[in-house]
Each structure stands twice: as C-alpha cells, then as structure tokens.
Amino acid sequence: MKILSIILILGFSLTGHAQSLAAYQKIAAENNPGLQAQYKQFEASLQRIVQSSSLPDPQLSMGYFLVPIETRVGPQQARISLSQMFPWFGTLKAKEQVASLQAEAEYQKFLEFRNQLYYQVQAAFFPLYEQQRSLLFEKENQQLLQSLKALATLKFQNNEAALVDVLRVEMRLKDSQSRIEILIAEQKALASGFNRLLNRADSSSIEIPDSLNYPTIMLNYRRDSLFVNQPRLQELDLQIKGSAAAEKVARKQALPNIGLGLDYMFIDPSNNAISNSGQDAIMPMLSISLPIFRAKYQAAEAEAQLKQESYRLQKEELSNKLSSSYEQAWFKLQKQGDLMRLYRQQIQISKQSLELLYTAYSNSGKDFEELLRMQQQILEYQNKLSSAQAAYGVALAELDYLTAKSL
Hints:
Mean pLDDT: 88
CATH topology: Outer membrane efflux proteins (OEP)
Shape: rod-shaped
Strand content: 5-15%
Radius of gyration: 39 Å
Order of helices and strands: HHHEEHHHEEHH
Oligomer: single chain
CATH architecture: Up-down Bundle
Helix content: 55-70%
Number of strands: 4
CATH superfamily: Outer membrane efflux proteins (OEP)
Distance between the termini: 48 Å
Strand order of the largest sheet: 1-2-3-4
C-alpha cells in the first residue's frame, strides 16, 4: 500500500555523490582572506631576520675649508671621513636569533588560524546536513499526511469516520507547509555563511552527503597529541625562547660598540721647499661607544625576563584550558553517540506502532488522532537523530581542532 511504502522510506536521505568535507576545508585554506593575511604576517616576519642581522650603515662625511688650514706640508683644503660601527661580538647573531624565533612563532599563529578555519568550516557544514535532513523528513511527512487525508476522506464518504479526522489532517498539512517554507529560508542563510568562510558567492552550490558515517572513536582519542602538536603551545614555547634571546641581546647592547674609520685630507703644495710638500694625509681611526647610562639596558633585560615568566604562565593557563576543553568535547561526543543509538531504537519502535495504528484505522475508522500523533512522533525522533548526528560531528571536529589534527 502507498502509506506503507512512504513509511519505509522515512529516514533515508537523498542520493548522489557528495564532495568531501576535507575538500571544502582545502578550498577555505586557499581562498579565505583572513588566513592569507595571517600568512603575509609570517612572510613579513621573515624579512625582520635580514634586518636584525645587518650592520648599521657606514657614515661618510665630507668637509671643505673656506679658509685653508696651514700645515707643515701645505694648506689643508678638504677632508673626507668614512667610518663603520660594529656591535659587540655576538650581538648581531643574538638579534638574528630573536627575529628567527619570532618568525617561527608567527608561523605557529598561522597554523592556529588555519586549524580554527578548518573547525569553523566543519561547524558550519554539519548544520547544513541537519537542515537538509529536516527538510527531507518534512517533505516525506507532507506526503504521508496527504495519504492519510485521502484515507480519512474515503472513510468519511463511506460513513466509517467523522469529518473531524479530515479537518485534523488538514491542520497538520498547513503546519507542515509552513515548516517547509521556514526550512528553505534557513537553508539559504546557512549556505551563505558557509560560502563566506570559503570566500565564495552566496549562491555557490554545496554538496551535502546523504549520510554521515563516523569512524569508531576510542577512549582518549588523540589525547596524546593535545600538548604535542598544539600550535598555541608551540607559539608560547617559541616566545619564551625568543624572550631569552632578547635578554641576551640586552646584555650585549650594554657592552661597547667598536668603530673603525679612515680620514683622507687634501693638502696643497707648500710655498716652502720642504720634503713631502703637498702630500695628502691618511689617518686611520678607532672609536668606542661608552654605554655608561646603564638603566635602559637593565630595564631591557628585566623586560625580557618578565616576558619569559608571563609566557610560562600563559602556557600553564592554556594547558589547563585545553585539558578542560578536551573533557567537555569528549563528553559531548559520548552524549550525542548515546542519543543517536536511542533515537534509532525509538524510530524503529514508532514505525512498528504506526503500521499497527494504520491497519487498525483502515479496519475500524477509530483512533485517527493517535495515528497522527504517532506519525508526528516519528518525525520528531528523525529530526532529533539528525541533530544528534550533526552535534556529534561538531564535537569530533572540536577534538580534532584541540589536538591539531591535520587533513
């Protein structure tokens, strides 16, 4: 019978090969402007390595005497000086190390942003699946109500049922049509948000799988990776090392800088007949800076030490939060898994009850309201099942994000 065939297809989804979620994550990684901006930040930090390891520019000065200065070998007309300052030994290497560690920390920020984006794509994808399933169930429910209406009308025409049965199913049909219109509007909003994560047009098509098949998740799933591959923790480790290197730089900068230079003086011939008359003079120079104002160097060293302590405390706080978030996500995963098993059992029992009620109504024309109620109960359990499946996927995605699982 038609009514029984509709009952049998309830719970099955649309057919068709769907694009994998991992493919959408890759599209987001390639197109998302926020992730691209974060990578540019990393590339910019690499340029600081070259800057920090470079010597200061040499200084060239030139002078011309408006009134020549008389020397023993002749009047001095002009002077050129070239000098170069050199930081204390190891200073440039220490600065380069600071810049390198900061660049590595920026890369970890990029990885964290990428992982967040992957999670956001998953968190936006599963509601699309849930919404599509709800829309499918509601359309199937509408078909079932149409069949029940035809049956109730036939029973009324044969004086085997009351007109109120036809009116009741008419009310359910109007409610169903209203829910379908709401779900279609919701579908557009969810699709728009998902496509924005991928930096695509709102109208871009999205392929949703016809089922969600999750792998078996063992106890302590990827927990050993929670503190190993986590980019936020690695970033803080690099910040600690970078601050230690900055402390070394502060100590190096408190030492003298050494300058080497050369003066070249242009001398005209002397009127006196003396040897070396008019010979230009060359004078090597050595200069040393005197870092006698120690307060700024001591403050820079103390700043680096305080930053190290701050990053250590941040790391401890983050580790605690990661452990707490992992436990909460694991609880959500277990809860939704239990609910999925419960709803599948309830759907199976409810379908059996619906078949019995339909047979009884076909024979006696009684308990039509109970028939409608049971059919509505199946619809609710189906929606709850798809909701639990979507929530399970989001919880699993959160665990993958916390443990920095790569594609």
